[in-house]
């Protein structure tokens, strides 16, 4: 069962995500060396980092 998706003011907009996505390295699972698939979508990870940066760990 997927987690519910909440929207927060600190979440990335589509325009911000388009700019950030280009700056992230290629996932290891898509390289010739290989690797495990990512467990969480990258955009949600970035949103989580921005949420903690904006609100702090209370």
From TrEMBL:
Residues 13-57 form the Insertion element IS402-like domain. InterPro entries: IS402-like_dom. This is Insertion element IS402-like domain-containing protein. It comes from Streptomyces lasiicapitis.
């Amino acid at each position: 069962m997927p987690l519910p998706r909440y929207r927060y003011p600190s979440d990335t907009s589509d325009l911000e995500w388009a700019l950030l996505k280009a700056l992230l390295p290629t996932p290891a699972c898509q390289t010739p060396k290989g690797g495990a698939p990512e467990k969480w979508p990258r955009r949600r990870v970035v949103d989580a980092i921005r949420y903690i940066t904006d609100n702090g760990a209370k």
